[in-house]
Specification:
One of its GO terms (cellular component) is ribosome. With 173 residues, this protein is an all-beta fold. It has two domains: 83 residues, RimM (Elongation Factor Tu (Ef-tu), domain 3, Beta Barrel), CATH 2.40.30; 59 residues, PRC-barrel domain (SH3 type barrels, Roll). It is 2% helix and 45% strand. Strands 1-2-5-4-3-6 form a six-stranded antiparallel barrel. It is elongated and about 60 Å long.
């Protein structure tokens, strides 16, 4: 799957979270929440936090699993100290294009999940990114959770228009 974020049907998509300032020159370390961290090289701006403050990117580099960003008009560490823990977003128009059978996580969260016979199973509440394949967390009406692997044999149909997913439950789920 592609990007993490909250359900806003979905004007903005999260691409990372600022973890801390980096050095004294106003740079920040960003933990990317996109499948392609190199995408930061193409971004000219990001939107900060729930207030969606526009930050123009002046420099991008990479260190281990992190992205190091410098923002225009933020020359010192003091100007970015308050950004720790805040999410970075892009508009949906700036999001990376999806391949067939790929979805943005915010489009899946909140989706009604039904079995292949049509019975309501619950609501998709979270997508766990495990490395091999994603796992969908579905909360049943009784509060219990079902974990469904995001593999072709289990996910039969996804309709973002109808906000509905049809699944085949493997034995034991």
């Amino acid at each position: 799957m592609e990007l993490k974020g909250e359900k806003m049907k979905n004007e903005f998509l999260q691409v990372g979270v600022i973890t801390s300032p980096h050095g004294l020159a106003g740079e920040v370390k960003v933990f990317p929440s996109t499948d392609d961290p190199a995408r930061f090289k193409k971004l000219k701006k990001v939107l900060l936090g729930e207030e969606k403050k526009v930050l123009e990117i002046s420099q991008v580099r990479f260190f281990k699993n992190m992205v190091i960003l410098r923002f225009k008009d933020h020359p010192k560490i003091e100007s970015v100290m308050g950004y720790r823990g805040k999410a970075l977003f892009v508009s949906r128009e700036e999001a990376l294009p999806l391949e067939e059978n790929q979805y943005y996580i915010p489009d899946l969260v909140g989706m009604e999940v039904v079995g292949e016979e049509g019975g309501f199973l619950g609501t998709l509440t979270e997508v766990l990114q495990t490395g091999a394949n994603d796992v969908y967390v579905v909360k049943k009406e009784d509060g219990k959770e079902i974990l469904i692997p995001a593999i072709r044999s289990c996910i039969l149909q996804v309709s973002t228009e109808e906000n509905r997913m049809v699944v085949h439950l493997l034995e034991g789920l």
